[in-house]
Amino acid sequence: MNLNRSFRQLVVDVTDQLLLRKHRSVLVLAGRSDWCRESAQEVLSIVLSGNSRACALWVGKNPVAGSRAVTAKQSVHLLGTESHVLFIDTYDGFNPDVMAALSGTLVAGSLLVLMTPPLDQWSGKLDLDFQRTLVELPKTDHAENEPAGETLNRSAFISLVSESIRTNPDILVVDQGEPIPPFYPTVSDRPDHPIEVPESANGGCQLDMSDCCTSDQAMAVEAIVHVVTGHRRRPLVITADRGRGKSSALGIAAARLLKAHQDRLGPGVIIVTAPRFSAVEGVFDIAESLLSGNRIKSMELQFANGVLRFIPPDEIIRSRPKADLVLVDEAAAIPAPMLQVLLEHYSRIAFSTTVHGYEGTGRGFQIRFKQTLQRLAPGWRLQTLKEPVRWADNDPLEHWVFNALLLNAEIAPDDQLSAINTETCSIELMNSEQLLEQRSTLKQVFALLVQAHYRTTPGDLRDLLDGRNLSVQVMKQGSVVVATMLVAQEGGFDNDMAEAIWSGRRRPRGHLLPQIMAAQAGCIDAPKLRYLRVVRIAVHPSLQGLGVGSRMLAHLMETATANRIDMVGSSFGATVDLLQFWRSNDYRILRLGLTKDASSGCYSALVAQPISVDAQILITGICQRFRYQLVEQLREFWKQLDMALVVELLKEPGDFGCSVINEQGQLDLLAFAYGHRGYEQALPSLRQLTLIMLADKALYERHEHADVELLIAKILQNQHWSECGQATGLVGRKPLEQRLRAIFASGLDTLELVGRAVELHSRLSA
Question: Which helix (H) or strand (E) holds 68?
Fold first, then answer.
């Protein structure tokens, strides 16, 4: 099958024009798979004829000759690298996360080549990539939930992408068997202007800003340097879309500061941290090129008597190394609790993050971390890089990716919320067709989900539109979206599947609640019940704290009851605020994960509220089991669990197995409190009284915060004496043990003493 000369000329004209304008764009090849591959090979030959060393990336199976195959896992590690043409073969599946990530590697003058079936048929074709993530439905649900025929595979998400292609005049679509579309070159309107270099605010640090590509980047470098030379506790936050030279600004600033250190005007130790070294390798490359320093390791650069060193976030938090400056890149991909620890420990620190990154996390980071900054460092500053470095403004590829994947979706502005009465807002269940028809609602819904969660990706947009067991509840007034909730229907399996899940032989995708209850809580009948799981709940920031989220949950409970659902639950990264929110809505805590979740940096909590009698019986048993396990696991798995979180968990209603302390236990407490018995001999009784004191709000509030921390750290979490003195300011076992004796002497007043303990307490306390 020969491609005619007009196709070759079209590709040549397009790439020439892109180079002239310093832009990138999209070429869609729509037709049969073999025709798409032959056309792609022709495109690559034209690219290589102009640049024999061009990097061509291929997403899909069987890459054409001269291209490099890239898997989804590999795509993450290519962030920060450069490519000259990107081929995405959608016949092997369309992964929006991969496309968003790799599109950022394309340099000016490059093409993203998308190979698809005819666009009007694409949404009806089975997508192999999405098929791997499809939720497994119970056998009984297939008939009622799944339509027959080709519509089974119809994708609302692909319909959204297809429409974004057809309605975008900057995208060229070549349809198999159709005439080659015309191309009309335009004159470049990119202005050539000198960089406006700001006056240095860095005192003795004389910076050569000629290394910067844009005035935005120059200002960012200036701001980073000022973190070191200015007042302490003035952290910097740098935000930018991809391709704005954010990481390069970190490298330039690090080089300038290390050079200044020769005259003792800059920092000696600069630590760089990020989710992975590959995300900041460019920082070291830039600094090395400007300094001619000694790269003794890939992750360490020495210059004179200064050093630029990469350390992973968890290692920094564990070892707390000394640093004159800490640079945190891709901060949005680091769990918020870890960022807070860094902010509290280091007085000179800069955070940078991508706003519309492939993870879609930057906006959520900026909104949520801003609250932490305001509380801990109110003098923080924000620097935004807007002007692109690697391509020109108004880049067609960037515009299309943002629009197609809703990366630029925004929540309703605050001025539209002022007149809204949340009590009169409607709550409705919306399917994917309705969301596509009401595009403004879809954009607001997705924007709310992004700002409420750190790890919202383009793949989450696809799940929202195409998830087989997902539904979207939207609260709005008129056209303004106030809140949204993403809900998954789970469970409903037969006996055989329930037993297979319980034994660990099967893990049906998309059924989190029944799997956790069966495989980890040990409830063999749990998979047979029907669940609604709140996957995400997001309320407009201007209306948070007004009961909107609680109203959404109440409406969901009404829906669940009407549809004979057994229970409603959720799983989330446990914080005190979230646990209090769910408990205030009558949800019980069923489980706490044994390890921290990688995305949230928190232990995952499982909560649920029963509806049916079977669910009530199940939850009662699980709650009792969790209370007993909590006491034991605090000493094993949760030794470093946040003190406030421990107190919140102990508020869970019910018996922790310690409500009554017998006469011998009371005698042991008296003996310890008044110095007649050692800590180890009295420990079982000490643990009982500690649980009683902390679980009772009135008793808990009688004690100073430092005493509560000591009780939790030593009595419940069994931390070493050397780890327990931070809150009290005491050092060593002897003073800490004396403090514990005083606490328990006071705590004895809360007990109803029996037998000889009554007489002894009266005599010893006299």
Answer: strand 68-69
Is 138 in the same domain as 241? no
425 within some domain: no
- In angstroms, the Cα distances linking 112 to 18, 43, 170, 226, 483 are 12, 11, 13, 39, 36
Question: Roughly what angle, to the nearest 10 degrees, separates helices 362-376 and 336-345?
Answer: 40
Portion of the chain with pLDDT greater than 70, in percent: 90
Identify whether residues 679 and 535 lie together within a single domain: no
Q: What is the number of other CB atoms lying within 10 angstroms of the CB of residue 17?
A: 18
How far apart CA 184 and CA 76 sit, in angstroms, is 36
Do 307 and 250 have their domain in common? yes
> Could you count the other beta carbons within 10 Å of the beta carbon of residue 53?
6
By three-state DSSP, how is residue 109 classified? Answer: strand
Q: Which residue in this structure is represented by tokens 């892109």? A: 18
Q: Which of 352, 385, 418 is the last residue of a domain?
A: 385
691-701: pLDDT as tens digits: 888 877 766 77
In a domain, 19, yes or no: yes
d(CA 590, CA 690) in angstroms, rounded, equals: 22
Mark whether 367 and 450 lie in a shared domain: no
The tokens for 428 are 């409705």
Q: Quick one: pLDDT at residue 360?
A: 43
Q: Are 538 and 519 in contact (CB under 8 A)?
A: no
pLDDT digits (tens, 9 = 90+) for 72-92: 989 888 877 899 999 999 999
Which residues does 701 contact at the CB level (< 8 Å), separation at least 6? none
Summarize pLDDT for 396-442 with one digit per residue, the tens.
999 999 999 998 899 999 889 888 888 899 999 999 999 999 999 99
Q: Does residue 347 have a pLDDT over 80?
A: yes
Please report, for the domain that includes residue 296, its CATH number. 3.40.50.300
Q: Is 264 left (phi over 0), alpha (psi -120 to 50) or beta?
A: left
Within-domain flag for 204: no
Alpha carbon distances (Å) from 443 to 397, 399, 489 = 20, 15, 24
Residue type, position 669, single letter: L
DSSP-assigned letter for residue 214: S
User: What does pTM read for this prediction?
Assistant: 0.85
Distance between CA 203 and CA 478 in Å, rounded?
54
Nearest-5° Cα angle at 136, 131 to 138? 150
